[in-house]
Design goal:
The protein is of the alpha+beta class. It has a single domain, classed as Ribosomal protein L22/L17 (Ribosomal Protein L22, Chain A, Alpha-Beta Complex). The chain is 33% helix and 28% strand. It contains four helices and five strands. It has helices at 38-48, 53-60, 66-86, 116-120, and strands at residues 24-34, 94-102, 106-109, 121-124, 127-136. The strands form two sheets. Strands 1-5-2 form a three-stranded antiparallel beta sheet, covered by helices on one side. It is rod-shaped, with a radius of gyration of 27 Å. 17% of the residues are buried.
Length: 138
């Protein structure tokens, strides 16, 4: 005669989980001395501002300009900062603010131009870039 053991499965009922709205946070990136004129940088910033961060990166990787190379480095740094310091999800990042201002100028004289070419002064323009990225917290 075999003895059978009856097992019962207990069902644990969990209370209804509340639906929590996702929380968002912002991360700010700024670079005060980029060796490119602000106009050249603004032309490219205008095209990528409405895009998401990851789609902007993929677009900039195929843009063959000096300003694109600077922006790729800046965006990658901003994404890493947002991910590591603020626990933001990189896929949800969007640009909220892009600001390109004039930075310091370097001036030097070129004696070969003499009195022409603005008295022989060569001006190298620099830019200041400020980027605000907004995303969802993990």
């Amino acid at each position: 005669m075999a003895i059978t053991k009856k097992t019962t499965i207990k069902k644990t009922i969990t209370p209804k989980q509340e639906i929590v709205a996702p929380t968002f946070a912002e991360s700010v990136y700024s670079d005060k001395n980029i060796q490119i004129s602000p106009r050249k940088l603004r032309l490219l910033v205008k095209t990528i501002k409405p895009l998401t961060v990851l789609s902007a990166l993929s677009k900039l990787n195929f843009t063959n300009t000096k300003s694109a190379r600077y922006l790729v480095k800046a965006i990658k740094t901003a994404v890493a900062t947002a991910k590591n310091n603020y626990n933001l999800i990189p896929e949800t990042l969007t640009f909220t603010n892009f600001l390109v201002n004039e930075g310091p100028k370097t001036k030097r004289t070129d004696k070969s131009h003499g009195s022409r070419f603005a008295r022989g002064i060569i001006i190298r323009r620099h830019s200041r870039l400020t980027m605000v990225v907004k995303g969802q917290i993990k």
